[in-house]
């Protein structure tokens, strides 16, 4: 039946063709030819991309004017002319020709002009020369470096320590070695610039919490926990870190370490502790904020400090368990790609450690002196002291700001200059205004 | 990067014409004029522009990897990877003892700190040959050095010091180009005096109270050494780059950086927030194309014009031994109004008739380079970095550089070492010691490279660069070369992945003015022996050995135009 029906349809069609009026056939024919033409013709783009001619390109190149390489700096920029110190920067210092008592350098234990340090450095200079002429991997590792790493690890009672040749580069290389893109870092708002640069280099997610505010941190951690529950697969590979300083440079306060350790175990985040100011200052033997609070050092994953404050040398170190520290030997940028610490500086640091171990009484003396100065400066009208009473570095801020930062800075600079005229060397705390995330108010700083 | 087969000298046709015109023969190869004319015609505009820029012949070559060697290298890595997986498997199932440190018990449920795969290379390949790196020394890193002997009983997982010291190893690994790494002599005495007077540390930043009169003296000296208006010095070379590039460029600017730039330049560029585009190593056509496109098309998507364009190049690239094509870069920079940042970490003191670096080597004007950066670690035997340029630039850096505000200033005895050694190089201390060192280095470089090429090794880089990479290719030979050379009392540096591309592992020699001809001859003899032992003589273009010229002092002057 179907074939008959088909045949019938075909016959019908042919018949219809014969019977159709002429105009209809012609119209259909034209339409078919148009379709064939459209199919074979070139398509034109809807959006015209302007392809410039060579001449236009050359004109553009001629016209383009870059900005000047650096914007001009006004002659009376406060930071342009440095104070020139002639002679050794020890307790009595000659600044711009004036003799002052030095309240401006981070020489907490007074080891800058210690003769034993100088003798040790001199011995090393006579043996090994000044520079190391290579990074640690290529004949730049001296026996002094290995010694210093050993001594630091023993002193801090950790498994291993690693030395960097520059204090700033220590924490700025340590953080990106562990925390990568996609990891989460909880950091205090008052963290110093080196930590900020380390975080920027790591490309991780940064979550800031209010300075020393554990409730705020807990809130952030809880929020993160809720996020994790929504996406458990991602949570299993996202590392979490908390970065704090033992003694904050920008405020002179101590971080609440016991609460932090509790939060660490509850929310499974690792702690990186930056102890540049508190190493050699806090604690009975100078081991830093962990000794101050009596916390087991293994609870902190990484302690980083620089040797430029209490140890009166140059460079920095990180210490902790071998599991954590050994990784930096291959992936710490400031360690692998940079020349190692000159051996005379390492020898001076070892001698400073010797002195610290031999007289643990100096830490108590330092604390006493800090408390005394702190009390004595309390009553000054117009200025308030910011910082803990046992902190050797603290800020003097204006009680009432004049409203404009520049005027504040000028006023404080006046104070500093007047003090210098009277024989006390203070310094205005320096910040890069455009770069800091949270700018602390201007203040002279008295270490 | 790869030259055509049959040419291991200069790549540009014009060079051959120049050579023929001047009647010189470079390594026995002269390209036929017919071929060059055809090539030259197509690039006529570019070539004639650049032909006249070079006052001296520029000889750089990177010989192509022989095919068989490449295949065998891949096979080698394949075998190592398989074994790596096998060992990981055994370690996982505790059949083999696991040597590396593990996480604390209390923290086992934390998210793991390292990804397993990240460390695969470290665990399974690097560990096998780890004894070639981090060799501790206990003397001054001069031409001869004392290495502390260490042994490992568990296949390099841990080292024990036997207490013996391997004495007087010829040091071909330290960056001691002019031989200032000494523990006696005027530099050391001056540094000792300053140490007594000023102490070791500074404990403050430059902007606060750490700016000593010594630092001001050093900066004036560096500025006069380089021939620029002003200079500023920093405590660490790596930090100089990573802290000053962000101060100069920011978002909305463009950075054009060479493929093989050092990690500090890459980090500084990343931290600045500017857009980074990479051009092929030392390839001026690639750079020009990027510059043209950048100016014509502007920023991506918004099409706004770029605020500034900064070109980042190095004087000598330490892994390749190549020298930057500075005259062409400067010509491009002037044409397209970009700024040039030149990192002379390895070339300052080591190149040029007066030791002023790559600008001096090409006979150019230091004012043409906007920012001249360098380090004091290599040729001056100290540590630290500097930046030199116009006064406005340095004023700006004094106020806005991260290092000046937050990082400690350099230590006084180190500063004194730099001052004394720089004065010596400049001849200001009244002796000709500086000039002699520079000449000695240049002679050593030419002699060493020539002899190695004659022996049949593949050597990369420019003929005048004191960094000499010798290709090893296969992973097993990396370890073998390092160990064999140490057995023969010569300390070399071997490099593999990830510092170099995976199949191009190499041994790198750093020549020094402190190396005498006897030391070089001893080293060459041993390298010859080891090369035969390990079948390292891959080169298929054994150059026609030039008449064995006596090693005379006039060698340097002859080739200077």
TrEMBL record, chain A:
SUPFAM superfamilies per UniProt: PLP-dependent transferases (SSF53383)
EC number: 2.3.1.50
Listed cofactors: pyridoxal 5'-phosphate
Signal peptide extent: none
Enzyme class: transferase
Gene: LOC130708441
Species whose genome carries this gene: Balaenoptera acutorostrata (Common minke whale)
The protein's name in its UniProt record: Serine palmitoyltransferase 1
Catalyzed chemical reaction(s): L-serine + hexadecanoyl-CoA + H(+) = 3-oxosphinganine + CO2 + CoA; dodecanoyl-CoA + L-serine + H(+) = 3-oxotetradecasphinganine + CO2 + CoA; tetradecanoyl-CoA + L-serine + H(+) = 3-oxohexadecasphinganine + CO2 + CoA; octadecanoyl-CoA + L-serine + H(+) = 3-oxoeicosasphinganine + CO2 + CoA
Sequence similarity: Belongs to the class-II pyridoxal-phosphate-dependent aminotransferase family.
Cited function: Component of the serine palmitoyltransferase multisubunit enzyme (SPT) that catalyzes the initial and rate-limiting step in sphingolipid biosynthesis by condensing L-serine and activated acyl-CoA (most commonly palmitoyl-CoA) to form long-chain bases. The SPT complex is also composed of SPTLC2 or SPTLC3 and SPTSSA or SPTSSB. Within this complex, the heterodimer with SPTLC2 or SPTLC3 forms the catalytic core. The composition of the serine palmitoyltransferase (SPT) complex determines the substrate preference.
Keyword tags: Acyltransferase, Lipid metabolism, Membrane, Pyridoxal phosphate, Sphingolipid metabolism, Transferase, Transmembrane, Transmembrane helix
Pathway it works in: Lipid metabolism; sphingolipid metabolism; Sphingolipid metabolism
Residues passing through the membrane, by range: 20-40, 161-179
TrEMBL record, chain B:
Family per similarity comment: Belongs to the class-II pyridoxal-phosphate-dependent aminotransferase family.
Aminotransferase class I/classII large domain span: 167-527
GO molecular-function terms, A-Z: pyridoxal phosphate binding; serine C-palmitoyltransferase activity
Cellular component terms per the entry's GO annotation: endoplasmic reticulum membrane; serine palmitoyltransferase complex
Enzyme Commission identifier(s): 2.3.1.50
The protein's required cofactors: pyridoxal 5'-phosphate
Pathway involvement of the protein, from the record: Sphingolipid metabolism; Lipid metabolism; sphingolipid metabolism
Membrane topology: Single-pass membrane protein
EC class: transferase
PROSITE patterns: AA_TRANSFER_CLASS_2 (PS00599)
UniProt record, GO biological process: ceramide biosynthetic process; sphingosine biosynthetic process
Pfam families in the cross-refs: Aminotran_1_2
Residue ranges the record marks as coiled coil: none
Highest taxon of source: Eukaryota
CDD domains: KBL_like (cd06454)
Listed name of the protein: serine C-palmitoyltransferase
Keyword vocabulary terms for this entry: Acyltransferase, Endoplasmic reticulum, Lipid metabolism, Membrane, Pyridoxal phosphate, Sphingolipid metabolism, Transferase, Transmembrane, Transmembrane helix
Subcellular location: Endoplasmic reticulum membrane
